[in-house]
Amino acid sequence: MARRKIIAGNWKMNMTPSQAVALCAELKDLVKSDSVDVVYCVPAIDIVPVVEAVKGTNVQVGAENLYIEDKGAYTGEISAPMLVDSGVKFVIIGHSERREYFKEDDAFLNKKVKKAFEAGLIPILCCGETLEQREMGVTMDWIRLQIKSDLVGITADQVKSMVIAYEPIWAIGTGKTATTEQAEEVCKGIRECIAEIYDQATADAVRIQYGGSVNAGNAAELFAQPDIDGGLVGGASLKADFGKIVNY
Ligand code: PGA
Known about the structure:
This protein has about 250 residues and is an alpha/beta fold. The protein has a single domain, classed as TIM Barrel (Alpha-Beta Barrel), CATH 3.20.20. The chain is built from twelve helices and eight strands. The chain has an eight-stranded parallel barrel with strand order 1-2-3-4-5-6-7-8, surrounded by four helices. α1 runs parallel beside α2 and α7 crosses α9. It binds 2-phosphoglycolic acid (PGA). 2-phosphoglycolic acid (PGA) binds next to β8.
């Protein structure tokens, strides 16, 4: 069965609430599509206005992070039940910026993946290598380690429903996209890793995105690869170009 493509914007720490609402209005007609899933992953403070702004459209809303407890004395954090109650469907987990700047390790990310599933959220789990790792030839070893550690205790049925985003760190925000061959090679490798941990049916069902300088010019070729089921888009998700990416 063909996997449905999923194109997600990762707004990162951009867009005030009023700018967010304006962007939703600007993109509304441009991102219309019956054939792909469209998700805006937005800053926590933008969630409520964006959920309201996309009501009645094909756009679904995601968060960029969550905490591993449901409530309590965790100043500054946002819980999974809070996200669900606000209308969030997806949550990005393990983006390289969180791994790097906020020192989130795989054991912690595994707890986040579990928490997301427990609450009924769909994780978009990110993985990816540094330029040094690529040059050393350990890309796939590294990514297999990330995937295996982040998915400890996650069932095959859960994996079938989730999204994995392959984002080479050296391609994020740099304008330096991985070549189509490089992107496909790793996405295929991730699928093989899932087949090893689980089974072929699970590997065939899980959606794997590519992320890292996806734009209106390279999306079509990337998304045409057999193991690339869409993209996680940073910079280009904040402008009208996102419509071209959705309708590649
Ligand atoms: P970029 O970011 O498209 O701006 O490279 C992608 C991401 O970090 O998800």
